Amino acid sequence: MAKNAASAALDGPEKIWLKSYHPSIPAVLPPLAHPNVAALLLDACRKFAARPAFRLMGKSMSFAEVDAHSAALGAYLQSLGLTKGARVALMMPNILQYPVAILAVLRAGYTVVNVNPLYTARELEHQLNDSGAETIIIIENFATTLQTVLPKTKIRNIIVTGVGDMLGLKGHVVNFVLRHVKKAVPSFSLPGAVRFNAALSAGRGMSLQAVDIAEKDVAFLQYTGGTTGVSKGATLTHSNIMSNMAQNGAWLKPVTEARGVPDDMVFVCALPLYHIFALTVCMMQGMELGACNLLIPNPRDMPGFVKELQTSKMHFFPGLNTLFNGLMNNPDFAKLDFSSMLLTMGGGMAVQSSVAERWEKITGHVIHEGYGLSETSPVATANPFDIKKYTGTIGLPLPSTDIAIRDDDGNDLPHGEVGEICIRGPQVMAGYWQRPDETANVMTADGYFKSGDMGFMDPNGYTKIVDRKKDMVLVSGFNVYPNEVEDVISSHPGVLECAVVGVKDEQTGEAVKLFVVKKDPNLTEESIREFCLDKLTNYKRPKFIVFRADLPKTNVGKILRRELRDEK
Q: Which residues are registered as beta bridge partners of 105?
């Protein structure tokens, strides 16, 4: 694995962005204050013990309860005989059990493997086997997916939970409705599986054993797509995560110093916690500040989402372009009270100027856009939170972060010239899990991560993305790699060959467009869509399908995706 660059004394290009820093923001981070992420979060649990840490469907869980529940679950996990560093997969939406499980896994000395609960059996099987996970905590709604692949994995410990398991008496009603009224929990058979609440009960009678967890130990395997079509685990150490939290905390100073940190502060957590943006910026940053994370398990239900916002203040609102756009298209959103809002943060995908303008008009607040990747824990750059306008850029490098714009030969380019955005800093991953070859492809000898995004830096240090070097498609903040989609669709018996590109889309930023050459003349668009249903997660499925007699290719037979992208 590549070695991280030191956070201090970064050499490289001239750091012209520092002149645009607010006076309260340091150029370089001080040493980390905690030995590991668990210690940092536990410190917050004890400091803010009486405050609500998370809220779901009107039920709050205090910081003290998060501490107690995670200790019990952590002790139970240790009783299973897992060795230090064992990978524990978490496959849930935003429910109270999720943050409890994350802290339990970390304080017990293990590594969290976040899994999208909407994954198909094929995707789940790959991630479990690649990570080497032997234990999984899974929402019952998707337990059938695990049942399908279980014999092909090394999973030997299964904890199953229902949405309402930590909602008290109300939870029984919620679980009943989901299981028997909405039929949202297909029947499943997972012999030996333990219910989440049973694991908690058992763990309360055990002692959580102290584990020596170092900064360099692996906290998360955060899976992201690969140009080869194979999902890879970005290896994020405790140091990576804590560094990014410290960077984000420093960036918040102009806001917190100007308006203070309210005791009843609320983070709106509508982004899924299995996504690195919500994981670091919502859950962990919120906990460190003593805030309550308002958990939204299904943000696609816009009427339900807006109804939930009616019951709460909202101080920090991290989101994606698609989320902001969807909310504003709900007529009741504009009727909400935005007087408590301190900050709106946009990330995961480009925020469209039209969306930013509408958001400011409705809420009275600017969307401050940032940029990052799973490989950077995630935030690498952000617009200053004290500026009063949408810039259309990804902002400035965070403290202790270097951004270099480089050509294909690795040379630094002058300001204003377009090249690949390369990132160095303490938040950059240790490498891809057990893939030294893939790590070598993206890490430079001097410690920079090659993002695959093309952009330029202006004279004030602001960077603007202009294109993508890779063929990756960014759908609502999620990476879709054409090779993976092509690999699946090309296995359809009626397909001769195919190609996937990303095209602009008003709702999702980009969408997947598929070009197909038929082997079977009777092949239809409907049959392709049906074929994809159990093989690709929703956001990876083609939105547009075009049949062609042939595909444009180079002299050596490589499909020219760029020509297809430019096709009207």
A: none
